[in-house]
Amino acid sequence: MRTTSVLRWRPWLAAVLLAGLPATWPQAQAPAIEAARSGLALPSLGDSGEMTLGDERRIGDQIARSIYRDPDYLDDPLLDGYLQDIWRPLLASAQARGELPPDADQRYAWRLLLLRDPSVNAFALPGGYLGVHLGLLATVASADELASVLAHELSHVSQRHIARLLTQQSRQAPWMLAAMVLGAVAASKARNADIGNAAIVGGQALAMQNQLNFSRDMEREADRVGFGVMTEAGFDGQGFATLFDKLQQASRLNDDGSFPYLRSHPLSTERIAEMRARLALAAPHPGGHAGATAALHAMMAARARVLGESRVERLQALAQAGRQNAAPLRDPATLGLRYGATLAAARLRDPRTAQEQLGRLLATLPDEAAARQAVELLALEAMQLTQTDRLAGLERTTLREQALAAPGRAALLLGAQAAASAPEARALDSASQRLQTWLALHPDDAPAWQALATVAQQQGQPVRAARAAAEAQRAQLDLNGALDRMKSAQALARQDLGSDHAELSIIDARRREFERLVREQFCEERERRDPVCHKPD
Q: pLDDT at residue 33 above 70?
């Protein structure tokens, strides 16, 4: 094994152990260790020593705040929509089984965070945040395999495995934790495990690293609960077995760092045997989960593969994939290949290749509503990227209008982007109305707020644009940034004599609310350093 599991983690993921540290850590190791020794590093867990759900949520919020600022964080409407279609039935199943408290929707964030990382990995964070790497989406062969991963991670949250581990680790020497996390930070930033190994001091720190992985009992429990959750949600439990087979095969190969999931979730023969026993006792599965067809999964896996690439030569190879074989094959693998080729060509700003590959994709597309919409949204996206109004017989204006009228977040956001890039009053009004309706029901959707800010700016409404930008910052947990933006919106509104009074009232109320949230956050951070904290007036 070339590097240990913690050294593969990003700084924000390693920060789960030191959630009380400031966002900017000193470069030198000694000052951080000294600060940790003085008791500044770890969050207060209360007199009982047990972590509450509120503690979990605060730690998860702090880590998520860093993830949102990571350049590899990705909010792709199509991939997010596909993940949500799998995630929502799992969450409903866990609630129906009684695995979660009745007020789980208020206590947990339940946010899926997509990372532009080619490694096969997924992880659960305190407070109901789950991370998914593009490499995992590109590797799993079906929606059932993906559901097995998400159900397993959901079960780590519902069974409070993370809280139990953090409570245990919080009793360890803080300076040892600081040294270990500094090693993770250095290794992640430099992409060099040797730097991290040099920063991790002493055999005790290395021994503590082993405690980062879930225990065998916790892994078995997450398998058992996750299996029940996914099968009762309508997915085929065979997805667990096929995924285990893939991971077992990968574990036999030389570990080159591509499967960090294997290190944080070690696959033992006992786990595999227990899962096969559950499958043998389970009732036969009636069929695939509704909406998660093989064609749609193949296209979303191809999308993840392309979005995970930044090298031009690799994108060029993906764009040319399948051109030698013009046969009208309808199998999912071919559909995925052509979907990925179209997206890769669009990212390269190559309209000719995008047109050719999109035409082949449309010619072999099955008669499935979800797959058809995914391809039409791809076509709209490709026209945006290549700055063309027509591809493979499809018109940008028509696709934009269809997207703005269609249900779903992906269609809404891509339609709004198209409206903002080629501004027409009617399209902008439609996008603005749809976004405001959506945000009334989903106020924590940061990209939707950002889309509304762009549309409002195109409409000549700078005050509304500034307020939407502030709400986007708030939705990504950047309260100080949100307050600054809202103050800017207020200043703009005061300068504009024609500003709507209702808009001014909303801005004033939101500014006061943001100030309250910033004060509360300030006090929570002080509580980690000083057990007696009085909230500022």
A: no
Q: How far is CA 399 from CA 182, 348, 379, 392, in A?
A: 49, 21, 8, 12
Mean pLDDT, range 204-232, rounded to an integer? 72
161 compared with 484, residue with greater pLDDT: 484
Separation between Cα atoms, residue 189 and residue 386, nearest integer Å: 33
Dist. CA 41–CA 28, nearest whole Å: 16
The token pair at 165 is: 């581990």
Residue among 366, 315, 363 nearest 341 (CA): 315
What angle do the packed helices 332-347 and 351-363 form, to 10 degrees?
160
The predicted model scores a pTM of: 0.82
Looking at residue 60, what is its pLDDT? Answer: 87
Question: CB neighbours of 372 closer than 8 A, spacing ≥ 6?
Answer: 365
Whether the pLDDT of residue 236 is over 60: the answer is: yes
Contact 275, 227 (CB under 8 A): yes
For the chain, domain boundaries:
5-281, 461-537
**369 Cβ partners below 8 Å, 6+ apart?**
none
Q: Which contacts qualify for 385-394: CB closer than 8 Å, 24 or more apart?
A: 385/346, 385/347, 385/349, 386/346, 386/349, 386/350, 386/351, 386/354, 387/349, 388/351, 391/351, 391/354, 391/355, 391/358, 392/355, 392/358, 392/359, 392/362, 393/359, 393/362, 394/358, 394/362
Beta bridge partners of 130: 112, 124
Percent of the chain with pLDDT over 70: 73
Round to whole Å and give the CA distance between 302 and 299: 5
Mean pLDDT of the chain: 80
> What is residue 178's predicted lDDT score, i.e. its pLDDT?
44
Question: Tokens 């990504």 map to which residue?
Answer: 476
CA distance 116 to 73: 6
Instruction: Give the Cα separation of 166 and 202 in Å (integer).
Output: 21
Total count of residues recorded for the chain: 537
Report which residue type is found at 404.
Answer: L
User: Tens digits of per-residue pLDDT, 496-512?
Assistant: 766 677 888 999 999 99
Residue 147 CA, distance from chain mean position: 15
Question: Among 19-28, 75-84, 265-274, 290-299, which range has the highest average pLDDT?
Answer: 75-84
d(CA 158, CA 97): 11
Work out the percent of the chain whose per-residue pLDDT is above 90.
52
* 117: three-class secondary structure by DSSP: coil
> If you write DSSP's letter for every residue of 296-349 in order, what string do you get?
HHHHHHHHHHHHT---HHHHHHHHTTTTT--S---SHHHHHHHHHHHHHHHHTT
